[in-house]
Specification:
mainly beta; 5% helix; 2 domains; 29% strand; binds iron/sulfur cluster; Alpha-Beta Plaits
């Protein structure tokens, strides 16, 4: 069996009785209206980005082959239409693939 895991939560106490480690896979097709994990819907890898954690070091600007990263007056933004999920993205606290 193969799958893409986008999160692992130890000490998970909200998804059933008792304490467990919850493993989240991508590719859920249920589309619940109350979904708390819409990042699970697609089966393909996606770029995860936390703008508030970006320090503007520029590593991802230099490494992206498609120019998807842009620094503006409003800060670091990503043009996701240019992202091909090339897996060149630096694995940092701010930008990872999931
Ligand atoms: S997302 Fe990460 S690698 Fe890119 S500029 Fe911000 S801190 Fe640097
Ligand atoms: S995954 Fe690749 S194409 Fe997408 S933004 Fe990062 S470096 Fe650019």
């Amino acid at each position: 069996m193969k799958g893409i895991i986008f999160d692992i939560q130890p000490f998970s106490v909200y998804d059933g009785p008792g304490i467990r480690t919850t493993v989240f896979f991508k590719g859920c097709n249920l589309r619940c209206r109350w979904c708390h994990n819409p990042e699970s819907w697609l089966t393909e890898p996606q770029l995860r980005f936390y703008p508030s954690k970006c320090i503007g070091c520029g590593k991802c600007f230099n490494i992206c082959p498609n120019g998807a990263h842009v620094m503006t007056e409003d800060g670091h933004i990503i043009d996701r239409s240019k992202c091909t999920v090339c897996r060149n993205v630096p694995i940092t606290a701010t930008a990872t693939l999931f």
